[in-house]
Design goal:
The chain is mainly β. It is 2% helix and 42% strand. Strands 1, 2, 24, 26, 27, 28, 30, 32 and 33 form a 9-stranded mixed β-sheet that branches. Strands 3, 5, 6, 8, 11 and 13 form a 6-stranded antiparallel β-sheet that branches.
């Protein structure tokens, strides 16, 4: 991927002074950017509902739009090769570090400007796409529009301040706002006025605003979407709708969190990551946060956020807050400690005010988390995709964790995907939080597909491939550690990725930079790599297959008494069995004589074995198969 910035960062996310005192692990390394898809768990606002929609365009017919550069206005120059394009299957060129638009109808086409200019570019690109035919608003005195978009700002004013996304409105298709005007009353609406350098938006983000000043009651209304800048990431637009502006309509504005991760620089923010799987030993206080936007014409008085867990209300934000038209704010509820009972928990955020909302379909958002006995994960056990796109490269995926109480790390769990090549040697590591350097490593395990996961995540419970450490690692409250999964390359191995990770809070190492440069990069999709804080994690069941027989995984595993090992012979044959420790020393051997064809079982008593990792080998007719087991 093309990288554009290197960031210094503290503790993965910006933290308040109180959080720093609580979590004093120093600073993390500087890493470049791999990809940006800022999703914090809240779904995009739903178009439709009770809205009176009278015009839509899903960009399935690009002939309905005109694409062009700015006219000569004395304000800009432009590159002819930088412009909007329309169609299906678009993606930022050159591996730009934002993904394609994930809009509702992205598959049938959307509009995009890929603003990655040439090196040392100083010319200002100023391009637009414009409706070919107008929309009749004569029967609609109050008019709003909405559309789905994906955008990340390259320059928010820290250097030249030239980057803008605008929507322009005209009632004749030829008279447009003066190029120097940024006044909404004149028909130009700036989409991201609060956005700063490197800020992303959720993919997709639903933009909704009122254009009544220009369009209300007008017989013909044209829109232009204009991008201006010297060098950027990309801007994408899809699923445009015109609708009658409701009097009372509030919606979730793309952000909810139960640890307030995206606003942790504020005094109420906790400043730690959001965990989808929380061991009972690491339960700590939640701060619920959600951003609401008023897209109705009336002010929304006594706006509140209510939070329910598994249907039971656990808190409501303070009343008395008024949300003016077009404004947004983040509401919070502090002081809730999760229930320690094991299981899944569903969180529902609901925004309400004194007025009856005319479209309740976009007033709620949901998240989920799990309380576990020992699995510690930043993911929420749902697949958003797979990583990397090319599973044959050599790479490392790393997920940082904070510790709120003393704990022991027994191993690493990874969600490996079905299309990965069986027989591949894989390994996991524990990295230090400050430099991403290896501190401990597991033994290599051989990948076998029965323990992997479907790419669509719909094949039931996730299968976690467990990599145990030979010697468990004790950690202290306040420390930070990083779970890492490594693939040496060659064979095809992919892992799952899950919910959003804010910038600089999840990392990958590999050839993901310009010209396939190897380095550490941050990613905005959580790698599904977990820590195991419980000694009872089970190694994935490995069945090794040979020409004339197969050898199964011992069960239970880890073992501390009798463990059973299944094997299956194609033909009756002489069988020998042996066990070796991690140094290769023979600790037990058996000559089992001639065994019948079909399924057979060995019962092995490991009670006198030292705790650790062992290999066991079955020899049949001169052919040998080996598997691993753990004794605890």
């Amino acid at each position: 991927m093309i990288m554009k910035k290197i960031y210094a960062f503290l503790l993965g996310v910006a933290v308040s002074g109180s959080a720093l005192a609580q979590f004093a692990v120093g600073t993390q390394p500087m890493v470049k950017e791999k990809t940006t898809n800022f999703r914090t768990g809240a779904p995009a606002a739903v178009q439709g509902g009770e809205r009176a929609v009278f015009y839509t365009d899903d960009f399935s017919d690009c002939n309905e739009w005109t694409i062009g550069n700015a006219f000569a206005d004395g304000l800009t120059q432009f590159y002819d090769n930088l412009n909007f394009e329309c169609g299906a299957g678009l993606a930022p060129a050159g591996g730009a570090p934002i993904p394609a638009l994930a809009s509702t109808t992205a598959d049938n086409g959307f509009m995009m400007v890929d603003s990655d200019g040439e090196a040392n570019q100083v010319e200002i690109e100023n391009c637009y796409f414009q409706m070919g035919d107008p929309v009749d608003c004569s029967e609609h005195p109050f008019v709003s529009i909405s559309f789905e978009t994906q955008y990340r700002m390259w320059d928010g004013g820290s250097s030249d301040g030239n980057e803008f996304c605008w929507v322009e409105v005209s009632t004749d298709g030829t008279t447009w706002p003066d190029q120097s005007t940024t006044d909404a009353a004149a028909g130009r609406y700036e989409l991201f006025p609060e956005m700063g350098t490197q800020d992303p938006v959720e993919n997709p983000t639903v933009i909704t605003f009122d254009i009544t000043d220009i369009a209300g009651g007008a017989e013909t209304v044209w829109l232009r979407f204009r991008w201006r800048g010297t060098y950027g990431y990309a801007w994408m637009v899809d699923d445009l709708a015109f609708f009658d502006t409701p009097a009372n309509d509030m919606r979730v504005d793309g952000y909810v969190s139960y640890t307030d991760v995206a606003t942790s620089t504020q005094a109420t923010g906790l400043g730690y990551y959001e965990y989808g799987a929380i061991p009972t030993s690491q339960i700590t206080e939640f701060v619920f946060a959600g951003r609401a936007r008023n897209i109705g014409s009336n002010p929304q008085t006594n706006t509140v956020m209510e939070v329910a867990i598994n249907g039971d209300v656990v808190g409501t934000s303070d009343a008395g807050f008024t949300l003016e038209y077009g404004s947004f704010d983040t509401l919070r509820i502090e002081g809730y400690t999760p229930d320690a009972t094991l299981g899944m928990y569903d969180i529902t955020y609901t925004f309400m005010s004194d007025s009856l909302d005319e479209d309740m379909s976009n007033n709620t958002a949901t998240q989920s988390y799990e309380i576990t006995d020992g699995s510690y994960g930043r993911d929420d056990a749902t697949f958003s995709g797979v990583f990397p796109a090319d599973g044959t490269v050599d790479y490392t995926a790393a997920t940082p964790f904070q510790f709120f109480a003393d704990a022991t790390i027994y191993g690493v769990e990874v969600a490996i995907m079905d299309n990965s090549d069986a027989g591949t040697d894989l390994i996991c590591h524990l990295l230090d939080f400050a430099n991403l350097e290896i501190q401990e490593s597991t033994e290599e395990l051989v990948l076998l597909n029965p323990n992997t996961n479907g790419n669509d995540g719909t094949d039931g419970d996730i299968n976690w491939y467990y990599f145990p450490f030979e010697d468990p690692i004790d950690v202290l409250a306040g420390e930070g550690w990083v779970a890492a999964f490594e693939h040496y390359g060659g064979n095809d191995v992919q892992i799952g990725e899950s919910k959003n990770a804010p910038d600089q809070t999840a990392f990958v190492y590999g050839p993901f930079g310009a010209n396939a440069a190897y380095d550490w990069y941050f990613t905005n999709e959580v790698p599904m790599v977990r820590l195991r804080l419980d000694p009872n994690g089970e190694v994935a069941v490995n069945e090794v297959e040979g020409t004339n027989f197969s050898l199964g995984q011992n069960m239970p595993n880890p073992a501390n008494g009798i463990t059973r090992i299944n094997y299956e012979l194609n033909n009756a044959d002489a069988v020998a069995f042996e066990v070796r420790d991690i140094t290769g020393k023979l600790v037990q051997s058996m000559n089992l004589g001639t065994q019948a064809a079909g399924k057979n079982t060995i019962e092995l008593n490991v009670e006198q074995f030292q705790a650790g990792i062992y290999t066991y080998t079955l020899t049949v007719g001169g052919e040998r198969l080996t598997n691993r087991m753990i004794v605890k």
